[in-house]
Each structure stands twice: as C-alpha cells, then as structure tokens.
Amino acid sequence: EIHSDLNFNSLAVFEPVVANISLNIEAEMNSSFSRMLIAHDASNNPIVIIATKDTIMAVQGASWKYELKFEDGTFDSYNGMGCGDIDSDGADEVIVVSEGKYMYAINAEDGSELFVRSIGISTSFNNISVADVVGLPGKEIILYSEDSSKIYIYSNNGYYLGSIDLPTINDVENAKKGNNALKITHNSGSNNCGILQHIFNPT
C-alpha cells in the first residue's frame, strides 16, 4: 500500500480532520504551510502532517514538530514530502527531501528521526512514494519530479539504488498507461513498469 500526498478524490473520508486543521495549527505556525498529507499510525488511524519552509509537524492524530537542520544548526528548507511504512512496523514514516539535498525519514507517530541522508539532488518533487518494487527487504522510497528527467529509487534506509530515465513526455505518457520500455540505470532487475505504475497510479 502506498501513501503519498492527500488524495482529494477521497477527501470525504478525512473531512472532519481537514475541517478542524486550522483550529489546531493557527497558534503554532508563523508561516503558511507548503504541503499537507495524511499518514497513518500502527492502528491505521489518520495523522495530518504539514510542512512549512523549515518545519514538519503533526497537527491532528499526533502532536510533534521536527525542524529541518544541518549539522551546524542552521536551517534547511522543505522541497517535497511523502509517507509510507518503510520499516514494516505498521506505522507510516514521513519522507522529506530538502533544498539542501538531504532526505529525512521521520516517524509519523512521535516525530522521532529514523535517518538523515545526503542525496545530492535539489529539485521540486511532485511525488514521493513508498512501495516494494526492487525485491529487497522492506519497501523502497521513490522520488519523481517533472523538472527532472529521472525517477530516483532509494532503499528503506535512504541509500541510492538506481534511477529510471524519462527522456520525453511520450515516455511519461506511456508509463502512465503501463506501456513502456524504460530502463533502470543501476538496477536492471527492478520492475520498471511496476515502479512507474506506483508513481502515476497509486492505489
């Protein structure tokens, strides 16, 4: 199962949560939030997560705040966010990619940090998904950006596994239809069609 950004087609399921969000965050926030998503705890209860410029916080279903910072204490900046259960404990983790070229993995239930990795990529990510697509233990982290010509695949502990080239818009359209011959750069055993279907048509 994949959890990414809030699916507004199923908004009715979360309507009470979304309707009350402003009551919980108005006093806590001094800047507008950039992104909101719904994660789940180990009992499958929803947790509303929002991202501001340099802070990730749970505002409904849990209560925590995580600041994006470099080792020297200066602030990093949010660039993309998704969620999914990468460590198979039943609860989602929040995956954040930053303008400082780092990936942060945060426990959605309590805000604890699983890892921070330098990934060397700085672009706006349209989709960050979690799915078992490579065949290794655990699920993989999949990054996709319309500004980039690649889809990037990372292990569940944040290490780079490979990438898929998307050189033209026709390749993207074919991928959406499940009809593609795209090749993964560093892991030829991966199921490219499956990865692309997870990104473009998550279920």
Fill in the keyword field for this structure.
203 residues; alpha+beta; four-stranded antiparallel sheet; 4 helices; 33% strand; globular; disordered N terminus; disordered C terminus
Task: Furnish the topology, listing elements before pairings.
Elements: H1 11-19, H2 21-25, E1 35-40, E2 46-51, E3 55-60, E4 64-67, E5 78-84, E6 93-98, E7 102-107, E8 113-118, E9 127-131, E10 140-144, E11 150-154, E12 160-165, H3 169-176, H4 192-200
Antiparallel strand pairs: 1-2, 2-3, 3-4, 5-6, 6-7, 7-8, 9-10, 10-11, 11-12
Summarize the structure.
With about 200 residues, this protein is α+β, with helices and mostly antiparallel strands.
Describe this structure as you would to a colleague:
The protein has 203 residues and is α+β, with helices and mostly antiparallel strands. It has a four-stranded antiparallel sheet with strand order 1-2-3-4. The protein contains four helices and twelve strands. The chain has helices at residues 11-19, 21-25, 169-176, 192-200, and strands spanning 35-40, 46-51, 55-60, 64-67, 78-84, 93-98, 102-107, 113-118, 127-131, 140-144, 150-154, 160-165. A hairpin with a 3-residue loop joins strand 3 and strand 4. It is globular and about 40 Å long. 38% of the residues are buried.
Tell me the overall shape: globular
**Separation of termini?**
7 Å
User: Which bin fits the share of residues in helices?
Assistant: 10-25%
Structural class: alpha+beta
**Low confidence ranges:** 1-30, 180-194, 197-203
Mean of residue pLDDT values: 74
The strands making up the biggest β-sheet line up spatially as: 1-2-3-4
